Amino acid sequence: MASSSSIRMIDIAVNFTDSMFRGMYNGKQYHVADIATVLSRAWSAGVDRIIVTGGSLEESKEALAIAETDARLFCTVGVHPTRCKEFDDSGDPEKHFEALLSLAKEGVEKGKVVAIGECGLDYDRLHFCPPEVQKKYFQKQFELAYATKLPMFLHMRAAAEDFCNILEQNKHRFCSGVAHSFTGSAQDRDRLLSFSNLYIGVNGCSLKTTENLDVVKGIPLERMMIETDSPYCEIKNTHAGINFVKSSWPSKKKEKYDPDCIVKGRNEPCLVRQVLEVVAGCKGISDVDQLSKTLYHNTCRVFFPQDLDSAADALLAGGQSAS
Q1: Which residues are bridge partners to 230 per DSSP?
Q2: How far apart are CA 12 and CA 14, in angstroms?
Q3: How many CB atoms lie within 10 A of CB 7?
Q4: What residues are designated binding site?
Q5: How many CB atoms lie within 10 A of CB 246?
Q6: CB 163 within 8 A of CB 192
Q7: Which residue numbers belong to the known binding site for a divalent metal cation?
Q8: CB atoms closer than 10 angstroms to residue 302
Q9: In angstroms, how far is CA 140 from the centroid of its own chain?
Q10: Cα 155 off chain centre by
Q11: How does strand 24-25 pair with strand 9-14?
Q12: How far is CA 7 from CA 43, 79, 93, in A?
């Protein structure tokens, strides 16, 4: 479906390094790699920038390589909490850290790396990485943010207290950030909002239940961003937010792959439009265009500040030429 031309969106979280975008599901090939097709659907839907998530050193390298294929793609560099064992497993944690730092600096020079992350704490999946290791290397990644002056792309799952304590201890070491894929309670939300430089990222996983919708309703618009976290976190028909969804795309199962259709069960960036619609619906906002502008502006403030500078300069220049 075509978008209304005035709606512009930035999807702050897409996992293009996931094998589903190469046509692989659980180790089995179902269709061709199709990032180009997925991107063309996203651009047509009104998405005009995407941040590709890095969740390990290797994945961050891959995210940077993907970001270099299109002027509208950007990426993060960092280590996800469930992968933090890779620091110790490398045999030389400091050298591993230095490799991340040099990759981040290289990406900044290329104009592609816009955040440090995905980093944080995930106590739902401790079988991947114990809490002490997660905390140690979450702390460590603030050094990356401090050294590069980049914002942080954060992950908090069932760990609000430790997460916010670490944030508090390091709040002067990062300029700003987003707690993405937020699924916490109203109390968790308010704790995050108490950090003036922090935004909250909302996707399909944030909009599953009526309780989720109530929590999202309480996020001030000027502190919110939207994302898909694709290929995960789609808005399903069973989710409370589905009633507010207005846009749809034809879909087919992966076994019957058709490049003109989205793959059933695989989220993709064009569907960030549905997240925008659910946010509008649950907050009772009828002007979706204006909502998209606010969220776009928030995202630029954190990840693309040079855009706001040039927009402000253009406004000033316009004012001067008119006088």
Answers
A1: 14
A2: 7
A3: 18
A4: 118, 155, 180, 229
A5: 13
A6: no
A7: 118, 155, 180, 229
A8: 22
A9: 21
A10: 10
A11: unpaired
A12: 11, 33, 44
